[in-house]
Amino acid sequence: MSEVKLFFGPQHPGMHGNASVHLYVEGDTVKKARLVPGMLHRGFEKSMENHTWMGNVALIPRVCVAEPDINEMVFAQGVEAIAEIDIPERAHYIRMIIMEMTRILAHMMSLGAISSPTGLYTVNHWMQADRNDMMDIFEEITGHRVYHMYIVPGGVRRELPPGIEKRILDYFTEFERRIPEYQALVFENPTILARLKDNILLPAEVVWELGVTGIGMRSAVGKPYDVRKVTPYARYDQVEFEVPVATYSDAYTRSIFKVIEIKESIRIIRQAFDMMPDGKVNVKMAAGNALKWTVPKGQTYSAVESARGEFGYYIVSDGKTQPYRIAVRGASFPQGFLGVERYMPGVRLDDAPLWYDTMGVCTPEIDR
Amino acid sequence: MEIKKDLFSPLKAWKYAFKTPVSFPMEDIKDRPRESQDNARGFHINDLSKCIGCGACAEICPTEAIVMVKRKDLEEKEGEHPERPTMDYGRCCFCAMCVDICTSGSLKMSKAYVLNTPDPQKLYVMPEESFPAPGGDILGYDKTPESDLLDLKRAEMPAVAGAQAKKSFVEILKGYSMEQARAEAARCIGCEICVKTCPANMHIPEYIDAVWQGDLAEGLAQMYKTNPLPGICGSICTHKCETVCAIGKRGEPVAIRWLKRYIVDNAPEAMYEEVLMAPVSKPGQGRVAVVGGGAAGLSASYYLRTMGYQVDLYEAKPLVGGVARYGVPAYRLPDERLNKDVELLEKIGVKFLVNTKVGQDITLDALHDQYDAVFLASGLPQSRALKLENGDHPDVRYAMPFLAAARDYQRGAGEMPDVAEKAVVIGGGNVAFDVARTILRLQQKKYGHSHVSLVSLETRDILPADLEEIEEGEAEGLHCHCGFGPQGIELFQGKIRGLNTVKCLSVFDEQRNFCPVFDPEQKGMIEGSQVYVAVGQMNEHTYFTPEHLERIALKGGKVQVDDWGQVKGAPWLFAGGDIVHGPDMIHGIADGHKAARGIDVYLQSRSETA
Amino acid sequence: MTNSMNSVKARWAAQMRGMFPDARLKKDRGTEMTYEILPRDLHQILAYLKNSGWRQLSMITGVDWIEEGQFELVYNLFDWEQGLRVLLSIRIGRDKPQVLTITNIYAGAQYYEREIHEFFGIEFIGNEDALKSLFLERWDALPPLRKDFDSRAYSDKKYVKRFYDPVYGPQGGAPFERS
Question: How many angstroms separate the CA atoms of B448 and B442, rounded?
Answer without folding.
Answer: 9
